[in-house]
Design goal:
The protein is built from no helices and eleven strands. By secondary structure, the protein is an all-beta fold.
């Protein structure tokens, strides 16, 4: 295991829900923005959403494709960021990754999240 570990992926039917976790260890969690990204087979990695460095006030950003369906939350005491995914669609099928960047304002750009990156968890949504 590394500094960021994703969990909670699995197989779910369309319309169902999953909650992913991104557990951080070994660094000062509240100094980092934590982003969620996903990569479908044959496609590039794209943003899902971000728990901003100021997450204590609930600051988050979402990609348009998941707004209203996905929610990011955090538990600073557990150094964990969650991705609640509701009303899942087959097109949500992908490997989901979390990544961390220190002292960065909110951004959905994966290329800016260079400090820590998890190995991903597979989410498969069947039709």
């Amino acid at each position: 295991e590394g500094p960021l570990v994703e969990s909670g992926g699995g197989l779910v039917q369309a319309g169902g829900s999953l909650r992913l976790s991104c557990a951080a260890s070994g660094f000062t969690f509240d100094r980092y923005s934590i982003g969620w990204f996903r990569q479908a087979p044959g496609k590039e990695r794209v943003p899902v959403g971000v728990s901003c460095i100021t997450r204590s006030d609930g600051s988050t950003l979402y990609a348009d494709s998941v707004k209203g369906r996905f929610t990011i939350s955090s538990d600073n005491a557990k150094n964990t960021v969650y991705l609640q995914m509701n009303d899942l669609k087959p097109e949500d099928t992908a490997v989901y990754y979390c990544a961390a960047e220190i002292d960065m304002a909110c951004s959905l750009s994966y290329f800016l999240f260079t400090d820590y990156r998890g190995r991903g968890t597979q989410v498969t949504v069947s039709s």
